[in-house]
Design a protein that fits this description.
This protein is an alpha/beta fold. The protein contains 8 helices and 17 strands. About 25% of the residues lie in helices and about 30% in strands. The strands form 4 sheets. A 7-stranded mixed β-sheet has the order 5-2-1-6-7-9-10. Strands 12, 13, 14, 15, 16 and 17 form a 6-stranded antiparallel β-sheet that branches. Strand 14 and strand 15 form a beta hairpin. Helix 1 packs parallel to helix 2 and helix 5 packs antiparallel against helix 7. The mean pLDDT is about 95.
């Protein structure tokens, strides 16, 4: 079976690697290389790096709507196209090319969490179950018929990094199975999404990551784990930016500080008040410094009584 692939970041690279082991991946469509770093060197995206390792031809079109580009794709004779975190909408003139259609991997249980950052938002919203969906692409974002899906349980302390480590192999397996099903010639029971149940999630911006100490301890804890490893939840302390990498819900007996107020327990544990409950800060990163545990933060900053995150 010949597979055409569209993708950009690490999750796309992972799936591409797995597909190369089972199918003939005939091309990768990736975004243009970007100049990064102080020396402004051109850098490939993760998917392009994987494609080059497997000698897969890489296409980096300026426009997906260019008729000449569509003709180039037809020349590869792919049976099916696979899209994983490509970052641009695929026009009908492209997704209708392969005889078996075009599928997309989405890391949520559609129709819930359509749009950007579904893994992060599932954690931020305190979900206990999420999943992965392989859907047929159509002209609406994440609204195509479902080919396959799988559930994933979420632990109350799981971070986005840990959840992605589960999503990757589950998602890659489902994509490969979907390719087999759709290209085998057998009958497939596609499931239409209930659009009335659709929810949307937007991109994570700097303000989303800003901790609001007037919210509850569980809400702050979920924000922190949902944004680990990036972009990382943040607050300010003594007028400077402070990243909060890891927290715990504090359930022991202790006087409740005011929202944002800091308290030290046994000279090595750091807690803070919220609008409802107490949260323990386990790992932090002050501006211009390395990530550190609570004890190192306490020893390094010699906290005064009633100091607070601003």
């Amino acid at each position: 079976m010949k597979v055409g692939f569209f993708g950009t970041p690490g999750i796309a690279s992972y799936v591409l690697e797995k597909l190369c082991c089972r199918f003939d991946v005939v091309f990768l469509v990736a975004p243009s290389d970007k100049r990064c770093g102080r020396d402004l060197k051109l850098q490939h995206c993760a998917a392009k790096e994987a494609a080059l390792c497997h000698e897969v031809p890489v296409l980096q079109p300026v426009s997906l709507k260019d008729p000449a580009f569509a003709e180039t794709l037809r020349g590869f004779g792919a049976d099916i196209f696979v899209v994983v975190a490509y970052g641009r909408l695929i026009p009908a003139s492209v997704f209708n090319i392969p005889p078996c259609g075009t599928i997309n991997l989405h890391p949520s249980l559609l129709p819930k969490y359509r749009g950007a950052a579904p893994v992060e938002w599932a954690l931020i919203n305190g979900e206990t179950v999420t999943g992965v969906t392989v859907q047929m692409i159509n002209e609406e974002l994440d609204a195509g018929d479902i080919v396959l899906s799988g559930e994933i349980a979420i632990d109350g302390n799981m971070t986005a990094k840990e959840l992605y480590e589960i999503v990757l192999p589950v998602g890659a397996g489902l994509v490969a199975d979907a390719v087999e099903l759709l290209c085998s010639g057998g009958s497939i029971n596609l499931v239409k999404q209930d659009h009335s149940q659709a929810t949307w999630c937007g991109k994570i911006d700097n303000e989303t990551a800003h901790i609001d100490w007037s919210t509850s301890a569980p809400a702050i804890h979920n924000l922190v784990r949902g944004l680990n490893p990036k972009p990382v939840a943040w607050t300010t302390f003594r007028g400077k930016h402070l990243k909060v990498w890891e927290t715990r819900i504090f359930s022991e007996e202790a006087p409740a500080p005011a929202p944002g107020e800091i308290a030290v327990l046994h000279k090595k544990r750091l807690i803070a008040g919220t609008g409802n409950g107490i949260i323990e800060l386990v790992s932090l990163q002050p501006e211009t410094k390395k990530r550190m545990d609570a004890a190192a933060f306490i020893n390094g900053y010699r906290l005064a009584p009633s100091e607070r995150f601003e």
